[in-house]
Amino acid sequence: MSDLSQNQDLDLSLLTEIADGSNEFIVESIEMFLQQTPELLQLISNSIALKDWETTGSAAHKLKPNLGFFGMLNTQPLIQDIESSCRAGAKNPQEISAKFNQAKIAIEANMVTLAKLKTELGK
Length: 123
Hints:
Layout: H1 13-19, H2 23-49, H3 53-69, H4 75-87, H5 93-121
Protein backbone atom coordinates (compact mmCIF):
# COMPACT_ATOMS: atom_id res chain seq x y z
CA MET A 1 0.00 0.00 0.00
CA SER A 2 1.92 2.96 -1.27
CA ASP A 3 -0.70 5.64 -0.62
CA LEU A 4 -0.27 5.71 3.15
CA SER A 5 0.12 9.03 4.92
CA GLN A 6 2.96 9.62 7.34
CA ASN A 7 0.56 8.99 10.24
CA GLN A 8 -0.20 5.48 9.06
CA ASP A 9 1.43 2.16 9.55
CA LEU A 10 -0.58 -0.46 7.80
CA ASP A 11 0.71 -3.70 6.32
CA LEU A 12 -2.02 -6.05 5.19
CA SER A 13 0.30 -8.89 4.18
CA LEU A 14 -0.71 -11.07 7.18
CA LEU A 15 -4.41 -10.47 6.53
CA THR A 16 -3.94 -11.19 2.83
CA GLU A 17 -2.02 -14.38 3.60
CA ILE A 18 -4.67 -15.62 6.03
CA ALA A 19 -7.46 -14.69 3.59
CA ASP A 20 -5.88 -16.93 0.95
CA GLY A 21 -7.52 -15.04 -1.91
CA SER A 22 -10.86 -14.47 -0.21
CA ASN A 23 -11.91 -10.85 -0.55
CA GLU A 24 -14.97 -11.71 1.53
CA PHE A 25 -12.72 -12.65 4.47
CA ILE A 26 -10.76 -9.41 4.12
CA VAL A 27 -13.95 -7.33 3.94
CA GLU A 28 -15.42 -9.08 7.00
CA SER A 29 -12.18 -8.63 8.96
CA ILE A 30 -12.03 -4.94 8.09
CA GLU A 31 -15.70 -4.52 8.97
CA MET A 32 -15.15 -6.07 12.39
CA PHE A 33 -12.11 -3.86 13.00
CA LEU A 34 -14.04 -0.74 11.96
CA GLN A 35 -16.88 -1.63 14.33
CA GLN A 36 -14.83 -2.56 17.40
CA THR A 37 -11.93 -0.13 17.25
CA PRO A 38 -13.79 3.18 17.74
CA GLU A 39 -15.46 1.72 20.85
CA LEU A 40 -12.11 0.62 22.28
CA LEU A 41 -10.50 3.97 21.46
CA GLN A 42 -13.35 5.79 23.20
CA LEU A 43 -13.11 3.48 26.21
CA ILE A 44 -9.36 4.10 26.48
CA SER A 45 -9.85 7.85 26.10
CA ASN A 46 -12.57 7.96 28.75
CA SER A 47 -10.68 5.77 31.19
CA ILE A 48 -7.51 7.87 30.81
CA ALA A 49 -9.58 10.98 31.58
CA LEU A 50 -10.99 9.25 34.67
CA LYS A 51 -7.55 7.91 35.64
CA ASP A 52 -9.08 4.44 35.59
CA TRP A 53 -5.86 2.63 34.79
CA GLU A 54 -7.28 -0.86 35.15
CA THR A 55 -9.85 -0.20 32.43
CA THR A 56 -7.28 1.61 30.29
CA GLY A 57 -4.90 -1.34 30.49
CA SER A 58 -7.65 -3.86 29.81
CA ALA A 59 -8.95 -1.97 26.76
CA ALA A 60 -5.41 -1.54 25.43
CA HIS A 61 -4.92 -5.29 25.85
CA LYS A 62 -8.05 -5.96 23.77
CA LEU A 63 -6.96 -3.56 21.02
CA LYS A 64 -3.37 -4.74 20.74
CA PRO A 65 -3.82 -8.01 18.77
CA ASN A 66 -6.08 -6.33 16.22
CA LEU A 67 -3.32 -3.85 15.46
CA GLY A 68 -0.90 -6.69 14.84
CA PHE A 69 -3.38 -8.44 12.57
CA PHE A 70 -3.56 -5.33 10.40
CA GLY A 71 0.19 -4.79 10.43
CA MET A 72 0.20 -1.63 12.53
CA LEU A 73 3.68 -2.43 13.75
CA ASN A 74 4.53 1.10 14.89
CA THR A 75 1.24 1.67 16.67
CA GLN A 76 1.00 -1.73 18.34
CA PRO A 77 4.05 -1.08 20.59
CA LEU A 78 2.50 2.22 21.75
CA ILE A 79 -0.62 0.35 22.85
CA GLN A 80 1.57 -2.31 24.46
CA ASP A 81 3.40 0.41 26.39
CA ILE A 82 0.08 1.87 27.55
CA GLU A 83 -1.08 -1.53 28.74
CA SER A 84 2.21 -2.20 30.56
CA SER A 85 2.32 1.26 32.14
CA CYS A 86 -1.25 0.93 33.40
CA ARG A 87 -0.64 -2.51 34.86
CA ALA A 88 2.48 -1.12 36.59
CA GLY A 89 0.47 1.57 38.37
CA ALA A 90 0.43 4.37 35.78
CA LYS A 91 3.35 6.24 37.31
CA ASN A 92 3.45 8.67 34.36
CA PRO A 93 -0.11 9.53 33.25
CA GLN A 94 1.10 12.26 30.88
CA GLU A 95 3.20 9.73 28.98
CA ILE A 96 0.25 7.33 28.76
CA SER A 97 -1.94 10.12 27.41
CA ALA A 98 0.70 11.24 24.89
CA LYS A 99 1.26 7.70 23.60
CA PHE A 100 -2.46 7.16 23.32
CA ASN A 101 -2.92 10.38 21.34
CA GLN A 102 -0.13 9.36 18.98
CA ALA A 103 -1.59 5.87 18.53
CA LYS A 104 -5.11 7.20 18.06
CA ILE A 105 -4.04 9.51 15.22
CA ALA A 106 -2.41 6.61 13.37
CA ILE A 107 -5.29 4.21 14.02
CA GLU A 108 -7.88 6.71 12.82
CA ALA A 109 -5.86 7.37 9.65
CA ASN A 110 -5.62 3.61 9.09
CA MET A 111 -9.37 3.27 9.59
CA VAL A 112 -10.01 5.71 6.73
CA THR A 113 -7.76 3.65 4.45
CA LEU A 114 -9.38 0.39 5.59
CA ALA A 115 -12.88 1.76 4.98
CA LYS A 116 -11.88 2.69 1.41
CA LEU A 117 -10.35 -0.74 0.86
CA LYS A 118 -13.47 -2.42 2.23
CA THR A 119 -15.60 -0.46 -0.23
CA GLU A 120 -13.32 -1.33 -3.14
CA LEU A 121 -13.19 -5.05 -2.30
CA GLY A 122 -16.88 -5.24 -1.52
CA LYS A 123 -17.91 -4.23 -5.04
